[in-house]
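Sequence in, structure out. First:
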Amino acid sequence: MNQSDFQRMADAYSKARFKDVVLPAGGLPDSFCVVTAWNPDGNVLSVEENELRGRELSERLDTLQLPYFPVTGYDPDSPHGGTGLRNLLR
C-alpha cells in the first residue's frame, strides 16, 4: 500500500457509521479500536472465507482474554459495508 491508499482508507474510516450494535454492560469505555478480519488489505474474499476469518479473530481475542463485541460498519455515502467488525475494549 502506498501513501494515497492510506489516505483513502483514512478518509473512508472517518465517515464510517455502525449499526446493529449491542453495547456491553456499562456502555462504551473512554477508548476503543475497531478491527476486522474481513477483506484483508482490500482483497475481496468470499463471504464464507470472511466468516471463517471473523470466527478465527473472535477465537484469538477470547484466547487473549480481550473483551470485544460485534458491530457492522458501513459508509452512509455508498453501498459498502463491513460485516464482522469487532470493537476491542481496552
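Second:
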Amino acid sequence: QTCSNLNSVLLCDLQQLENSLNEFGEKWVLNPGDGAFYGPKIDIQIKDAIGRYHQCATIQLDFQLPIRFNLTFVSHDGDDKQRPVIIHRAILGSVERMIAILTENYGGKWPLWLSPRQVMVVPVGPTLDDYAQKIRDDFHRGGLMTDVDCDASCTLNKKIRNAQLAQYNFILGEWWWGLG
C-alpha cells in the first residue's frame, strides 16, 4: 500500500504497524493514551525475575522532527522536495535498565555468552602450570574469557572455591587433562 502525502502517511502507517504486529503472532496491546507525540511506535516490554514489566526496545516513526528541522529530500523520480519520516529505534532501551534486568534475572550466574568470567583453568599441581597456560591460550583463541590459577600458596580446593565464588561458568581441572 502506498501513501501519497504526509497526512495520509500516519493513517497508512498505523494500519501497516497493526498488520506487522498481527503477523508477528505474539500478544500485543494498543495503548492510545501513551505519550508518543512524534508518531506511532512499538514498545517491547519484558518481564523481570519477579514479574515486573519494563519497557526496553522501541521503534518509532517521527513526523515532527523533520518539520522542525525543515528536512527535505528530492524523490527518486525528481519531483519536488519530499518530507522524510525519521525512524527512532532503541534495541535495548536504556542500557543501564537492561543490565539491571539481566543482573537481577541471572543472579550473578551469567550465561556463557554474557559472562565476564567464562573459564577458569585450575592445575592440580605446579608440574601442570605450563599445560594450564597452554589450555588458557587455546580457549582464549577460541573466543572465551579464560583465566588460570597457578597460585602455589592456595590449595586445589581453595582455587576451586575461589573460582566458584567468582562465578566462573566452567572450572577445568585434572579430569579434563586426562582427555588430552
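Remark: The chain has two domains: 6-106, 119-177.
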